[in-house]
Amino acid sequence: MNAATSTNSAPAERARIGGWQPFSACDWPRRLAAVVFLAGCPWRCGYCHNPGLLQRRHGHHRWPQLREHLQRRHGLLDGVVFSGGEPLSDPALPALLAEVRALGFATGLHTAGAYPHRLQRVLPLLDWVGLDIKTQPGRYAALTGSGGSGARAFACLDLLLAHGSDFECRSTIHPALHDTSSLLQLAGELAHRGVRHYAWQLLRPGPQLPQPFAPIATGWPQAGLQQQVAAMFEQFEMRSG
């Protein structure tokens, strides 16, 4: 039984879609993609960028309309990225990926790594994965509000490495969450495991975020620290968030 027909899957039309972006040049490196945001996430990170997508009930059954739009964009887009929320929380994801591939598009996924077994099932349907690695495994629960979340995220990393997938790890960073020592330790852990592509994304506090997520001072993290981390990877990128 393949991923698209797993007993834990649902038809694509049952997907809970919280929004979408028809064109993006920054959600899949070096690719022009549409981004589909699926509603639902099991974690409750205090700095969540999309809090409106935490509950699955906030999504709608909009896939037939989006599929028609994608059919008209053939030749204009390289692929489709499924983001969230946590897209692996949607039972319809395998069917969505299969349909996107049948339309002739490459498939990408943004995930925080909450569901290793679900990721394993859909890996054959994915061309690229952006894996959010928040911190060291032992510090995850304090950020996500979920025990065992660090083990699950790093299990997803191990799956990607073992599968030989095209992927990058990215960490959203802020002085309230990370200091120089923890950033170096996290980068070293990822490099030791075999990660080749890594990115830092600066957390940009919005009105929904409480203290201590104050605006980041210019010059953080220091250029010297960025150079140290860049030397650990084949490709390292600093993003403004």
UniProtKB/TrEMBL annotation:
<keyword id="KW-0411">Iron-sulfur</keyword>
<dbReference type="InterPro" id="IPR013785">
    <property type="entry name" value="Aldolase_TIM"/>
</dbReference>
<protein>
    <submittedName>
        <fullName>Anaerobic ribonucleoside-triphosphate reductase activating protein</fullName>
    </submittedName>
</protein>
<keyword id="KW-0408">Iron</keyword>
<dbReference type="Pfam" id="PF04055">
    <property type="entry name" value="Radical_SAM"/>
</dbReference>
<dbReference type="InterPro" id="IPR012840">
    <property type="entry name" value="NrdG2"/>
</dbReference>
<keyword id="KW-0479">Metal-binding</keyword>
<dbReference type="InterPro" id="IPR034457">
    <property type="entry name" value="Organic_radical-activating"/>
</dbReference>
<dbReference type="InterPro" id="IPR058240">
    <property type="entry name" value="rSAM_sf"/>
</dbReference>
<feature type="domain" description="Radical SAM core">
    <location>
        <begin position="27"/>
        <end position="237"/>
    </location>
</feature>
<dbReference type="InterPro" id="IPR007197">
    <property type="entry name" value="rSAM"/>
</dbReference>
<keyword id="KW-0949">S-adenosyl-L-methionine</keyword>
<keyword id="KW-0004">4Fe-4S</keyword>
